[in-house]
Amino acid sequence: MKKPVTFERNGEKYVEFITEEQIKQRVKELARQLSEDYRDTIPIFIGVLNGAFIFLADLIREMDIDCEVDFVKISSYGSGKVSSGQIKSKKGFDCEVDGRHIVIVEDIADSGRSIKFLEKMFEGTKPASLRFVSLLLKEDNAVVDFKLDYVGFNIPTKFVVGYGLDYDQKDRNLKSIYVIEE
Ligand code: IMP
Ligand code: MG
């Protein structure tokens, strides 16, 4: 959904923050890097539902290597803009991960708890490698120690929506990424 640079909904102000073109450009760069790093392998990209579905779809279509796709689903947000901090697994992975190169694809890392939780989901498995890519990273907000191997954009501590990211489950279909101003 294409929207103007700023608009209002339910008394909240949405300000375009990362444009469709900037996202496209960065996704291409990440895809090029991943294609190089995983050349001659067939990695499995595991998207983290719901937020990462659009990023994952765009990312794999910009790559020039074979890959497989799977999804996990976790939830941390109750409703609104504040994470509950309590992460639950709603769906595990279905693929055989042992011996395979696994790349977890997230929309955004904030406190880092979700990334930590995802790492734990793979404890006891034996992938050939396990790496994490996130389109966005709120670089000042980490409350746990975690590592991302690929990051699209470092962003300040603001609530963002669009390109898969939601506010109360809506706004995922915005083509750009918007900040909802306080
Ligand atoms: P973390 O566990 O605190 O790192 O939060 C990560 C998850 O919270 C992400 O996968 C998102 O689903 C959600 N999240 C964090 N920040 C935002 C935001 O600014 N907008 C929308 N969702 C967010
Ligand atoms: Mg998420």
Relative strand content: 35-45%
Number of helices: 3
Give the strand order, joined by hyphens, for the main sheet: 5-4-3-6-7-8
* Overall 3D form: globular
Name the structural class: alpha/beta
Biggest sheet features:
6 strands, mixed
Helical fraction: 10-25%
Named at the architecture level, the CATH assignment is 3-Layer(aba) Sandwich
Number of domains: 1
Tell me the total number of β-strands. 10
- Assign the CATH class: Alpha Beta
List ligands, each type once.
inosinic acid, magnesium ion
Can you write the helix and strand succession as a string? EEHEHEEEHEEEE
- Quote the average pLDDT: 95
- Poorly predicted runs are none
From the alpha carbons, calculate the radius of gyration and give it in angstroms: 16 Å
CATH topology: Rossmann fold
Distance, first to last CA: 23 Å
